[in-house]
Design goal:
By secondary structure, the chain is an alpha/beta fold. The chain has one domain: Protocatechuate 4,5-dioxygenase, Chain B (3-Layer(aba) Sandwich). Helix content is 33%, strand content 20%. The strands form 4 sheets. Strands 4, 5, 6, 9, 10, 11, 12, 15 and 16 form a 9-stranded mixed β-sheet that branches. Helix 6 crosses helix 9, helix 7 runs antiparallel to helix 8 and helix 8 packs antiparallel against helix 9. This is MEMO1 family protein.
């Protein structure tokens, strides 16, 4: 059996299993024992959005999503993340049989990946690109920790994983993948991890929106008109819209995206990203899961927000005030399905 090595262990996160376990326990321990009048994990919370940066940056934020995640009935875990290592259109599946972690290996659900491959809608991840990619790997140790808490120390009881890279695509293409994956989402024995950081601000990301004369403009935009197209009402998302600091601009742009996600309307999220150009790296995985959730809830009466993602934590790596600085935003959410 082929095993994808834990290539980021020892750099992006600890490679010593005891040290890593203690770190994850610490992060999870900082999260309250209950949220939204429910003890954690939240029953039926089978879908989460969580960040994928180095654990020293995003680990505390990711803990909020992972502590909500209900794995009690899980027999398969889908992990959807963006591609950082090569340009991808559509979706791609791993060719490995196992994913290594410092704790042990998680098995890939080859039957499900083969079934998805037969649809003709999925390519294979090149093995080297798969190993280099961090958006999927960063969730494997966290998942192991939560599986251990749910099923005990016998890893033979842990459900297999289905890692999927979600690449570039139009609104209609995201909806098509959502329609395809909805049949799996409908299965109450599936859990879903959506990998995404939010705003990447700084010259290294070619994205530096600032407040200028009543408008938001991107200092790094190529086009002559650098002002971003924001819908009316954005001013309500900040305390002082007439004199915003850069980190307040970042928060406002992230809130626009997060509010669109919480609306449950895939088209709203897609168009907010188009208008603001917010550098949400997992925008396509988020779009696909939103489209899938819409399929499930289409003919259902809304019940306590079921089928809609709800954010429980938002953090930034740095509160930017100078144009030469940079930051990455992190957010955690869950959905009861």
């Amino acid at each position: 059996m082929t095993t994808r090595e834990a290539s980021h262990a020892g750099s992006w996160y600890e490679d010593d299993p005891s040290v890593l376990s203690s770190q994850l326990d610490e992060f999870l321990g900082r999260v309250p024992a209950s949220l939204n009048d429910s003890a954690l994990p939240i029953p039926g919370a089978r879908v989460i959005i969580a960040p994928h940066a180095g654990y020293s940056y995003s680990g505390p934020c990711a803990a909020w999503a992972y502590k909500t995640l209900d794995l009690s009935n899980a027999k398969r875990v889908f992990i959807l993340g963006p591609s950082h290592t090569y340009y991808l259109r559509g979706c791609a599946l791993t060719t490995f049989d196992k994913y290594e972690t410092p704790f042990g290996d998680l098995i890939v659900d080859k039957a499900t990946t083969a079934e998805l491959k037969r649809t003709g809608r999925f390519s294979d991840m090149p093995a080297r690109r798969d190993v280099d990619e961090h958006s999927l790997e960063m969730h494997i140790p966290y998942l192991w920790k939560r599986l251990e808490q749910t099923f005990g120390t016998d890893s033979a009881k842990y459900p297999p994983i289905i890692p999927i890279l979600v690449g570039d695509g139009t609104e209609e293409q995201e909806q098509a993948y959502g329609q395809l994956l909805a049949q799996y989402l409908k299965d109450p024995t599936t859990a879903w991890i959506i990998s995404s950081d939010f705003c990447h601000w700084g010259s290294r990301f070619s994205y530096r929106p600032v407040f200028d004369n009543g408008k938001i403009r991107n200092l790094d935009a190529d086009r002559k008109d650098k002002h971003l197209e924001l819908r009316p009402g954005w001013e309500q998302l900040v305390d002082n819209p007439d004199n915003m600091k850069i980190h307040e601009v970042i928060e406002m742009l992230d809130k626009m995206a997060m509010n669109a996600v919480e609306s449950g309307a895939h088209h709203k999220f897609y168009h907010v990203i188009q208008q603001t150009q917010n550098t949400v790296c997992g925008r396509h995985p988020i779009g696909v899961i939103m489209a899938a959730l819409e399929v499930l809830t289409k003919d259902q009466r809304p019940e306590d927000g079921r089928g809609k993602l709800k954010f429980v934590q938002y953090q930034r790596s740095n509160l930017v005030e100078k144009v030469w600085d940079f930051s990455v935003s992190y957010a955690s959410a869950y959905a009861i399905v």
